[in-house]
């Protein structure tokens, strides 16, 4: 075949392929004759390439650098390859793409040269990959051409094609090659030179806005108060990503230095079955890409998966194969606190470098949220422990009396305490709080409460106990002072010692209310304690009530304080009621007065003679 003959045959083939496209568009319901004709043209194309190859082999080789006949034939063959009107892909024995012609790039929607060096079987429909590899092996071993129908998927496009494989022996290549000619049979190819829709300025702007919107929504979700109170940050974040950005989302969190699978989000239309359980059970430590991201502290994107074993194995084989993965992005969570993996299937556009950048930021946000959540929960447990140290779980039975209390935590870790405990020859009680908020104030209150309880085992006078606790508090040098009241119960008599605390209220059976003297100076101010001492008799049917600063200082919407007068009015309506009823009535009235707002801790303690 001479060069003019080859050029003429190529022009004729191009014209016939164009005619077949027009025929398919004109008669979409009658594809069988068009397909038969297309297959005939495919055979013609294969014969044309084979003849050109044989002619090239027949040309004698010449030494030197001057252009000779063989070089001209080789140049012509390259021109034929570039101008061929159907997709042609040259593969090596392992199925890796070595050459593609421009028509292949146009049909599959990939940049020129993008597929070179990548595994071609990854473009083949999952259900046909094993068959493709068998055909490829057969062609290489027997030299006999093979043709079969399959689907190719790339860049969100799916093509049903008739794929023809022919063995090639290429000069300068140590191994045999395979030419794959793909004739689309069910897709309308874009017009030559048409710009890909995803490359338009409007589409790029829309994608950028979508990524920024993701960051805003993710930040809002992770900063929600519930994300700090409960371990929901990771679940919420992966759910958001699975809804819009990926088919599969996997979060692996490092615990005790080892990555452990924490969350697996499957596609919405995917049943919660064996595959999901297999992905959940797969060991992330056996995943090459997870280990790589943790070691390097930076993410990776696989726009087109070259190795389906990157995410490890499950019972059915490589995890990515069972998912039908087409592309993947994998980023660190926080500062190597874990790994976030997003997977898209073949029928969706692949992840890009822009997606990698945005997911790196998402991973950082999730890491910060998880760390904040952990820190908050640690502090919350510490606060709960402090709260438990300033209030008894249950009130003991005091002979001759009924006791009840309500404790309402404030907006922050407070410092109010109350207690009922055995003393030398009877029972004692205490109530008070450090001036201040937070963990330090709560720890000082816990120290005072413990001191009153311990020293009361040896001293029968609450005032002596109060003075010793004051001395210890001053010696500690905390810089805080504590308002407190302590009482020892001996029969019907109660011996009170007050250190700057509000006076106790005594509710009588007829509804009258009188207040004790109270007084004194808070503990921790001076080495010499100044206390107010008083003895009260609580007869049968009378109720002694002690309360915290948070109760009487509660304010309504006008800024007016609750005060002791309103307290006395509520108590007078509770005459003859059980202590539990009394404390609940006081708390309910305060709640209605302040509109439910609680800033400081509220403690109400009642002791009724029976």
UniProtKB/TrEMBL annotation:
It holds the Pfam family SpoIIE. Coiled coil: none annotated. Keywords: Hydrolase. PROSITE patterns: PAS. Residues 73-143 form the PAS domain. The keyword Nuclease does not apply. This is SpoIIE family protein phosphatase. It comes from Nonomuraea insulae. The lineage of its organism: Bacteria, Bacillati, Actinomycetota, Actinomycetes, Streptosporangiales.
